Structures are given as C-alpha cells and as structure tokens.
Amino acid sequence: MIPGADRDSTPWWEAVARHELLQQRCHDCGRWRWPPRAICGECGSFAWSWLPASGEGTVLAWIRTRHGFLPGLEAPYVTVQVALAEQDDITMIGSWESAAEPTIGQRVRAVFVSRSGGVGETTVGWSSA
Amino acid sequence: MSLRDRAAIVGVGYTEFSKNSGVSTLALALRAISNACADAGLSIHDVDGLSTHRVGDSVQAAVVAHALGLRDVTYLSDQFGGGSMSHTTVGQAALAVSAGIADVVVCWRAINARSEFRMGGTDRPPPDVVEFQYQVPYGYATPPQQFAMWASAYIDRFGLRREDLGQVAVRQRGYASHSDRAMMRTPITMDDYLSARWIVEPLCLLDCCLETDAAVAVVVTSAERARDLPHPPALVSGAVWGSGHTLYSNHRGDLTTSAAVDAGARLWAMAGVGPGDVDVACLYDAFTPLVLMQLEDYGFCAKGDAAGFYAEDRLLVNPHGGHLSEGYVHGLNHLAAAVEQIRGGKHAALSTGQCGYVAGSMSAIVLRSDG
C-alpha cells in the first residue's frame, strides 16, 4: 500500500494498480480535480464521477535528482511535473520514463510502472508522446 | 481598524547556530525566549502570549508555557507548518496585542534541523501532509526537489543563466563572512558556485540553504509600551498571511509566480509604504531562485527582471547571510535580522517567510522605525 493513502485516494490507487488513470470530475459543473477530494472547488458540489483520463499532458517542469535522498532509490533519476490535457491547472508529479531528457512544453503520455503489480506497487510515469 | 503600527517587535533572542545543539528543542526554545525577553528589557513573567509553528519536529507551545512557569497565558498559538508560517505567528501576535488579547507575546521557532529532524528528512516519516502520497513513491520528498521543480519552470520561462542564481549565493556569503553568528563565513566565488556539486538539477549545493540546529525568538508588544523599552521599536506596519500554491498549485497552472503577487499588494497597502520605500529586504531563501522570484512578486522589479535588478545591487537583500549562509531557522532569523536593521537606523524593512509553494500558505511583515 502507498504510505499515506487515505479514504479519498484509495479508489485512485486501486485503479492505478489495474493500469487505469482515473480523474475525478464534478457532476454539476464538469470541472476536473486532483488530488482526490470530496468537494468541487469550483461549484461546491459533492457529486462526482471517476472518469478515465486521456493520459495526455505537457511537461510543466522537470528535475534530475543527483543526491540520493531516499534509501533504496539510486540517483540520478528524473522526475516531471505534468499538466494534464483535460485541464491545464491539474498537474501531477511522476517519474520520467523516456531515455532522452524531457523539455518543458513537451507533449507526453502516461505509462504505468509496476514493480510487482499490487496496489501501491504500481505508479504513474510519463514518456514522450 | 488597521493593524498598521499598533504593535512592535521589542526583543530578539537567538541560540547558537550549529549542526548539533546537543539539547532538546524545548531547551533551545527556552534559551531563545529568555534571551529575547532580556533583550526587550522584560521579565519572562511579563509574557502572556506564546506562539510557535512546527511540522512534528519541535516542542509544543503549551509545554514551553509550563516550563516557563506561565500560569495564565491569554494567547497560546501552536501552528502547523514550516517556513511559510514564520511571519504568521508574529503577524498574529501583533493582532492579539492590538486587540488587547495579550500584552507581551513571544514567538519562536526551535529546531534541531540537522541533528534530529532534517526537513523532508530521509530518516523519518514525511510530515502529515495529505499530498505527499502522490510524490514519495516517485522519490520526490524533499525541499530541494520540490523547489528545483519550481525553479526549472522559472529558469526556463525567463532564460536565466546559472550565474543569475549564483550571484545570490556569492553575495550572501560575503555578508555572512562579517557575521559572528553565521554558520558559513568563508567567502565563495562564482567559480566555486559553478563547480559545486549538483543536488537536484537545476540546483547545486550552493543554491541550497543550510541545515541548522537553533532557535530564534522575538517579543511583540504594543507600540505604546514599546516606546518605554530599551531598544528603538520596530513597528509592525503590515503583516500578511494567507494561501499560496500547494505542491499541486491550488489550481494555479503557472509555477513561475508565487502567492506573494496577491499577498504583497495587500501587505504594502496595509503598511502604507511600497517597495520603493524599503531599504532592506530579508527574503526567505531556502533556495537561491526564491530570492529572485520574491523581488519580482513583492514588486521591487518587473516580472522576469530580478536577475538584472539583483546584479545592480540597489536594494540591500539578506544582509545577515540568509538561510544560505547564516543558518536555517525557517524565516524567523530573517525577521530578527530585519529588527536589527531597523535598530541600526534603517527606516523600513520587508521580511518574508516562504512565499507559498509546497505548504500552500505564505506570510510576510513590513517593519518601520518609529517616527
């Protein structure tokens, strides 16, 4: 299980484990939102659906971690922040899964990165579109 | 009724800045508070308000009140957050004093940020922040990573060179070289900067703040009472605390502008002065690009012009050496430095906490000399 996963996010992480990228969308005003929340920040509605996201996005920013901060994770590695095609104020952090380094503004697509397949063992990465 | 000039900072207190204090955060807090009260010419038992902030890394305010023997605390504030909160505690202390809730409020930050709880620490669970679950699995968990991400968008948008960031590190180290308190006093050159090892591209070692064991405390009381105390008062002319970007930007798609754009405008209006009236700025500098971004977002120069503005050296910025070279006490050492500048004859100072990325909140204060 992902450390810190909660009752709002568990359905999202379970979908990721099935290699599905879901996003919450407000039933009433149609705004997408992220991370998972009980209320729409636009219209205040508590009604939403989990819908499949296109998995398309644009690189907003990226870094290369050169110092090994976390035990068991060997530096260097590249991490990106991606603005989703659905709505440009929705951004996700994820691992970079292409060989060539990313460029800001580059179009990308989501890929699923599995270590062994259980919930929390699969994460969302990004590669060049 | 405005908060402007109704309260003042009358005392500042420090502990030693070190890599290993050897004592608890409670002991650090008590030492800094005791020093701040002595500096203010007040007794610890004059204190009736206490405020601190922490992220699971420091002693509770109520424990400090108990240790100090304070029985009837009228204002007790114990807030969650890191560097974004440093000026919140003091701004709210000014509010409490102005409203007659308390007479003398002491605000502090006490951390063993090197020897016990390293920020974003790899040797402890992440703080209780709901969004971390979407980041830690990617090996993205520490402030250098979070701010490098922000910096990459900022650098890309304005075409900054490495030297544009390096000038901040070099100049602040120069200031710290004259300090008795600073942890890093050996001057550095641009070549040193350019050859420093990468931590998280685009940030190298010398773009990053220090990790410090220390406490800093400030004493806030009414402007009226302040005039009877030993030091010239540093009037709290304006104070803001509010929301900023979170790690997911709070529906702000643009990573190159901080919450200081909105909050700064409120701050200047409250203080009745503008950026052009300020003769020193102590800007939260966990990482060098934050200094440049705040020069723009608090209105000292146009968006995208900060590197050139800083190079002209027309505004005194972080004369204490900042987090990069003095030490990292989460913004409160910036406010203490601003007080010292006002006591030294400066007329107006801006001091800022983290400008609102990661934590989703920001804070800042304008201080003025009296009269």
**Unreliable stretches of chain A, pLDDT < 50, 5 or more residues?**
none
**Helix vs. strand class of chain A:** mainly beta
- Name the chain pair with the biggest interface and residue counts per chain: A-B, 37 and 38 residues
Q: What would you report as the Rg of chain B, rounded to the nearest angstrom?
A: 19 Å
The helix/strand class of chain B is: alpha/beta
| Portion of residues within helices of chain B | 25-40%
Largest sheet: number of strands, sense, barrel closure of chain A: 5 strands, mixed, barrel
Order of helices and strands of chain B: EHEHEHEHHHEEEHEHEHHHHEE
Characterize the overall form of chain A. Answer: globular
Question: Tell me about the biggest sheet of chain B?
Answer: 9 strands, mixed
Number of H/I helices of chain B: 12
The N- to C-terminal Cα distance of chain B equals 20 Å
Number of helices of chain A: 1
